[in-house]
Amino acid sequence: MKKIFHIAGALGVALIVQTARAQSVDKPVFKEGDNWEYQYFDTWSNRMTSTFSKQVIGVSGDFVRISYDLREISKTGDIGRPQQSESTVRADLNGTTMSGSEKFDRINYKWPLETGKKWTSQFKSDLPPSAANAPPQVMTTTMDSEVKGWEKVKTPAGEFNALKIVAKGSWSVSNSAASTGSGTFNVVHWYSPDVKGDVQYTYEAFSADGTPANKTKQVLSSYNFK
Q1: Which of 33, 55, 167, 170 is 20 to 30 A (C-alpha) from 137?
Q2: Facing residues of 119 across strands?
Q3: Which of 23, 29, 22, 82 is nearest to 52 (CA)?
Q4: For each of the chain's 226 residues, which pLDDT tens digit applies?
């Protein structure tokens, strides 16, 4: 009898795993009043450097209007005055960049998301000149992304089932005369459909010779949907 229960239990676990792997996730649907708050950390020191909140203040077709509130935290723990702003973003959580008159898509999420899905995103963006009378610069970025699978992630906002998306990228900056710099980066998203976004996000940057530079982490601290 015990053996039968063990077999049934194993089959149940296997069915749950297969169901999770087969589950696909469509792009989120935002509503006015949706809001989130995040904590940012410098993972070199594990110090919280800022808190960041955003709220949907309008939806128009494929675009969402967002208000932001950023508060920086000093090394002594003092919280700075809020820096408030607004912007319009794509509702699919991807981005658009421009180089000259050419438009490029930055694909952070290839909908629908599902385990094993891969994609490449290459885009260019214009940068301001490095000095007066210097030629304009163009940054070219390439990202190779893959949905690794479902993981449980615990943040101050709770515990979530999230899809882990890993992106490895490279960038280079050039002007009409020569290349002026390059580097690589790694990005990991943990996307939860329950919160219409990432519950955790990490970023690591490296110089051209592989020396690590910035290392940051963003975690969800609260959210509320109207």
Answers
A1: 167
A2: 145
A3: 82
A4: 544 434 445 434 443 444 444 589 999 999 999 999 999 999 999 999 999 999 999 999 999 999 999 999 999 999 999 999 999 999 999 999 999 899 999 999 999 999 999 999 999 999 887 777 778 889 999 999 999 999 999 999 999 999 999 999 999 998 866 777 899 999 999 999 999 999 999 999 999 999 999 999 999 999 999 7
Residue 146 CA to residue 124 CA, distance in Å, equals 21
Strand intervals (E) in the chain: 35-42, 47-60, 63-72, 83-90, 95-99, 102-106, 118-127, 137-155, 158-174, 179-192, 197-207, 212-224
Residue 16 identity: I
Q: How far apart are CA 104 and CA 87, in angstroms?
A: 19
d(CA 140, CA 121): 11
